[in-house]
């Protein structure tokens, strides 16, 4: 897959772009609803003998349009979007820089510049997708703006258990610690990718050595607490448990919750290396213990429960 970044109003040479079928949207999470849309684009491209593409935006429009400073964290930061879309056999990923200037572009001009300019022959979008200044362009106006230069498919609402599959719903589930339900809507485990850094080495003193993971602020993390996790290291998946929080027993102070992972049956030096944490099951809330003995006893219970929950995970 080839990733191409675009910034308005740069000139796009239509003749230099192959005929393409493209899915368009922000696609945070690339959940089951997004997957249906993107797979439709990929399958249509194969049927037509064309290239497939995904058109998305960065950063989130809230960052640009809200007057108050917005820190937006993503289910799938750009790096993760790229990895997932490559696995889905997308040929091109177009990332359009979302700016105030772009937000003021009229719907027709947006379509002319990006859809027609990129030589999109068929566009796939969700029923609620909007484009152009103040979102005045929609799938109800797309035929007028296409003016016969490309065809399109509108994907209807994707539901599960009677509710729309959406990034907002997944975020709510994560805030509530319902990680299995969130993962079910994502169609895969929520992840956090980061580097192993030096910590305070308290886990080792407690008999449960941990890897402290520093992740980018871009990642949306689930509710603080203790989780059963799988950990991908050098392409191999390991099982373990993770504490996501503020270490209340030790009265430590951190701006963001820390991720500390105990990898089961693992004894390698991994400082400075990348780990991918796959959040699998929520075990319990973070607690403050009166003494170290009670904390150690609880960690033993966490390990036992994690091993049971992960027993069938490959």
Automatic annotation (TrEMBL):
SUPFAM superfamilies the UniProt entry points to: Nucleotidylyl transferase, Riboflavin kinase-like
Pathway: Cofactor biosynthesis; FAD biosynthesis; FAD from FMN: step 1/1; Cofactor biosynthesis; FMN biosynthesis; FMN from riboflavin (ATP route): step 1/1
SMART domains: Flavokinase (SM00904)
GO biological process: FAD biosynthetic process; FMN biosynthetic process; riboflavin biosynthetic process
Keyword Glycoprotein among UniProt keywords: no
Domain Riboflavin kinase: 185-311
Catalytic activity field: riboflavin + ATP = FMN + ADP + H(+); FMN + ATP + H(+) = FAD + diphosphate
GO MF, one annotated term: riboflavin kinase activity
Keyword check for Magnesium: no
Keywords, comma-separated and alphabetical: ATP-binding, FAD, Flavoprotein, FMN, Kinase, Multifunctional enzyme, Nucleotide-binding, Nucleotidyltransferase, Transferase
EC number: 2.7.1.26, 2.7.7.2
Function per UniProt: Catalyzes the phosphorylation of riboflavin to FMN followed by the adenylation of FMN to FAD.
UniProt record similarity statement: Belongs to the ribF family.
Classification via PANTHER family: RIBOFLAVIN KINASE, RIBOFLAVIN KINASE/FMN ADENYLYLTRANSFERASE
Stated name of the protein: Riboflavin biosynthesis protein
């Amino acid at each position: 897959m080839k990733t191409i970044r675009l910034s308005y109003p740069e000139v796009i040479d239509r003749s230099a772009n192959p005929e393409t079928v493209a899915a368009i949207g922000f696609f945070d999470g690339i959940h089951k609803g997004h997957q249906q849309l993107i797979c439709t684009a990929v399958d249509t491209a194969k049927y037509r003998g064309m290239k497939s593409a995904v058109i998305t935006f960065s950063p989130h429009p809230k960052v640009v349009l809200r007057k108050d400073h917005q820190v937006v964290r993503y289910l799938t930061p750009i790096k993760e979007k790229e990895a997932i879309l490559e696995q889905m056999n997308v040929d091109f990923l177009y990332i359009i820089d979302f700016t105030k200037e772009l937000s003021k572009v009229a719907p027709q001009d947006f379509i002319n510049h990006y859809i027609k300019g990129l030589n999109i022959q068929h566009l796939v979008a969700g029923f609620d997708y909007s484009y152009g200044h103040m979102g005045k362009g929609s799938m109800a106006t797309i035929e007028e703006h296409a003016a016969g230069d490309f065809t399109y498919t509108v994907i209807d609402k994707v539901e599960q258990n009677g509710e729309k599959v959406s990034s907002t719903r997944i975020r709510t589930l994560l805030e509530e610690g319902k990680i299995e339900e969130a993962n079910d809507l994502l169609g895969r485990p929520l992840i956090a990718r980061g580097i192993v850094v030096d910590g305070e080495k308290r886990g080792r003193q407690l008999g449960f050595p941990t890897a402290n993971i520093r992740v980018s602020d871009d990642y949306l993390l689930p509710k603080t607490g203790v989780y059963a996790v799988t950990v991908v290291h050098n392409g191999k998946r390991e099982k373990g448990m993770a504490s996501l929080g503020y270490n209340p027993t030790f009265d430590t102070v951190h701006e963001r919750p820390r991720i500390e992972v105990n990898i089961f049956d693992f004894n390698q030096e991994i400082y400075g290396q990348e780990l991918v944490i796959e959040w699998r099951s929520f075990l319990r809330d973070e607690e403050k213990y009166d003494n170290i003995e009670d904390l150690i006893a609880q960690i033993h219970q966490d390990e036992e429960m994690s091993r049971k929950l992960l027993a069938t995970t490959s």
